Amino acid sequence: MRLSNANFYLETSAVNYLADRFIYADAIATKALQLTKGNIWYLSPVTLWEIMLTSDKERRERIIFYCQHLFHEKLLNSPSEFIINYLNAGCPLVEKRYDFHSKLSLSETWKDLVTDTQRTFIYDYEEFKQRMQLFQKLSKQIDKIINRIVLDTKVSDEELVIQNYVNHCFSQIEKKLKYMMTWIKV
Fold first, then answer.
1. Is 102 in contact with 43 (CB distance < 8 Å)?
2. pLDDT tens digit string along 155-173?
3. Are 14 and 58 in contact (CB under 8 A)?
4. Is 40 helix (H, G, I), strand (E, B) or coil?
5. 3-state DSSP: the chain helix, strand, coil percent, rounded to 5?
């Protein structure tokens, strides 16, 4: 099967697999070949964050350098950007086409790094790691709150704050949907 004019997204384990087995010259050749077919290979902000969490600095820099030569200069939306676009569109059953490239500041930095492959990310690894651990913890708690059946009579203060925030978000979505439904009926 021959694919052309296609977009490909590679997640972190696939990127690691390629970067561990091939050199950057292979990335250059692959990107050139794929571009002749009209294919674009993408990363997402999440993939870059995970790469930036690689503890071995030498390996991390090698993966980043490899990615600079293989992937498109624009990043795909992060999951939160996709969700926000979906909510802003009114939670449609079928979404209209829109620019699915990330608007996060990381995207501009990535574009600069792809344009000048002698550049790299400059950041405090330990601080970044701590921040990402907080996001991961929050993500797990939100998942736990959303996906569990609440039979507990005791809920931690932290879970209560997150539950209230999630409830607020859902009520806003519900209000927006009701408004849209009345607008459609008129």
1. no
2. 677 777 777 776 676 666 6
3. no
4. strand
5. 65, 5, 30
Residue 88 has pLDDT above 80, yes or no: yes
Nearest to 51 by CA among 24, 80, 19, 29: 19
Distance CA 72, CA 181 (A): 40
Threshold 0.85, pTM exceeds = no
How far, rounded to the nearest angstrom, does the alpha carbon of residue 15 sit from its chain's CA centroid? 14
* Residue 142 confidence (pLDDT): 66
With beta carbons less than 8 A apart as the criterion, state whether 77 and 44 touch. yes
What is the token pair recorded at 154?
Answer: 């005791």
Q: How many CA atoms lie less than 13 Å away from 84 in the CB half-sphere? A: 9
Q: Is the dihedral of CA 71, 101, 12, 131 positive or negative?
A: positive
- CA dist 60 and 164 (Å) reads 38
Residue in 43, 154, 168, 149 with CA at minimum distance from that of residue 104 = 43
Task: Give Dmax (Cα) for the chain.
Answer: 62
Nearest CA among 66, 69, 88, 68 for reference residue 77: 88
Cα separation, 42 vs 109, in Å, equals: 15
Task: Look up tokens 């569109």; give the residue.
Answer: 89
Crossing angle of helices 105-115/45-52, nearest 10°? Answer: 70
Using CA atoms, how far residue 77 sits from 41, 82, 86, in Å, is 14, 6, 12
